[in-house]
Amino acid sequence: MHITGGEVVVRSLLAHGVKAVFGIPGVHNLAAYDALLDAPQIQHIVARHEQGAAFMADGYARASGREGICFCTSGPAALNALASLGTAFNDSSPVLCIMSQIPLDMIGKEKGLIHECRDQLACFAPVTKWCARANSVAEISELLAEAFLHMRSGRPRPVAIEIPCDILDASDEVTLVSPREIVPHVPNQAALDHASELLSDSKAPVIWAGGGVISSGATEALLQLAERLNAPVFTTVLGKGAIADDHPLSAGTNIVHPAGKEFLRQCDLMLAVGTRFTQEETNNWAFQPPDTLIHIDIDADEIGRNYTSTVGIVADARETLKALNQILETSAPEARADRASDIQALRQRVVDECEAMAPDGVKLVNGLRSAIPRNAILVSDLTLAAYWSRRLLGVYEPRTNIYPWGFCTLGFGLSAAIGAKLAHPKQPVVCISGDGGFLFNCQELAVVAQFDLPIVLLVFNNNGYGVLKPQQELRYGRSLGADLVNPDFLKLAEAFGVESQRVDKLDELQNSVENALASHRTTLIEVTVEIPLPVMEEGSRAVYEALQN
């Protein structure tokens, strides 16, 4: 068929099952936007900043399990998306950025065209799994099929395609490339046999589940294996929801707490699934797993990167856990003592110790958990309230905890919450943000108003960067740049046409959140309560204790 480059983009997205696109039109990508008008199956959400658009695509991907798509025009618009793609890259989220470029024969000549970037595509290499340029109309469909293949196979990460504006505008005879077949990465049988023998022989195994369990859809297989082994399951922050936090075998994210470390010393084997043993999850790699470590990850580079494993299995988490279940079903390990009471004692000790040190932190988490329905999607920005919630707040279903973990990117929360709400319009979405982070992308409130995407947005306002000022004062005895002059957040919300209210006491928070959710309207809740530094993780606990002395 004879179609434009813009039409090839849209028809290729349709062929891959795309339902939503986030972006902003610009002079160089108008051909793609014109083609979207003929594809009502794809909803376009116009953002107010390209960083917000890419964060929305990321939130959509994490909540839905499908690819998030963002459109950017050339130069500054494309570069605005880099921090968002870096976030998706670090947290293994499949986001496709389709960006335009100046005319093909002008690239690299520095003649002074509008939106000209000397080497735009190279800027995306550090924050994407794969990136490429379409040099003809005919190449677009092939490259988009390749992009989806990269997102759907191996470790899910962002990808990017650059299409010069003259290629988007041009027409040619094109045969659309069908979506590529995805073959699951199955585990090596010898490694499986070795791992199953170790699991059978173990007297006190423990499982550590990361985000790879959720991205591979392995939660059911994980639970089956945990129950078969009677093994406690710890999760990473991105792994929250891999097992319901109220399951008797769920040990939460407490592995970073001193009590969690003591508990781990009683275990003789760890099965780590879909986790990278990153800096914050291991306390600067001071964490010590049991002597026997089985590590399952889809990314071969992660096996042995930070910890030496007894058995390393490079494969899809779901396929591997299903295979282990099948093997152990016929060679079941000996019955082990019930661990539920030990796990409950661990969890209670962690809460009690945190409450003794910083009771308002625990009170905050309890209030939020009581107010938020079980299936609610919690989206976090980087703020003290989110730091408390990432460890102590219970999560019960996969893809209901969305957090900018690896890149630690301020300004993520509101935009990602918009993407999550579009992915699941019927599920409640609650966003936790601080005043500083919220102001990075507060303009995206216009999006929730325009597209009727109701969320509950908690803005914890301490008029500053609350986690930075105490660190400056502790290390140097003074601070700079950590105090902020903020707008009246209630009036700001009113200006965008959304509801607002203020909470000055923690006792009021639960009722306020419940009422906001019941209204089914976007509500900004400004929380002026001073939130203490979290005491779960050793780094923040050390700062907290030093400031008390």
TL;DR of this structure?
This protein has 549 residues and is an alpha/beta fold.
Radius of gyration: 24 Å
Q: What is the CATH fold-level name of the largest domain? A: Rossmann fold
Strand order within the widest beta sheet: 3-2-4-5-7-6
Q: How many DSSP helices?
A: 23
Full CATH superfamily name of the largest domain: Thiamin diphosphate (ThDP)-binding fold, Pyr/PP domains
Supply the CATH architecture of the largest domain: 3-Layer(aba) Sandwich
Strand composition percent: 15-25%
Low-confidence stretches: none
Mean pLDDT: 96
Overall 3D shape = globular
- The CATH class label of the largest domain is Alpha Beta
* Main sheet properties: 6 strands, parallel
Indicate how many domains the architecture comprises: 3
Helix content class: 40-55%
According to DSSP, the number of beta strands is 20
From the N-terminal CA to the C-terminal CA, the straight-line distance is 74 Å
Helix and strand composition category:
alpha/beta
Explain what you see:
The chain has three domains: 2-173, Thiamin diphosphate (ThDP)-binding fold, Pyr/PP domains (Rossmann fold); 189-336, TPP-binding domain (Rossmann fold), CATH 3.40.50.1220; 358-548, Rossmann fold, CATH 3.40.50.970. Helix content is 41%, strand content 16%. It has 23 helices and 20 strands. Helix 1 runs parallel beside helix 7, helix 9 packs across helix 13 and helix 14 packs across helix 15 (359-371). The termini are far apart.
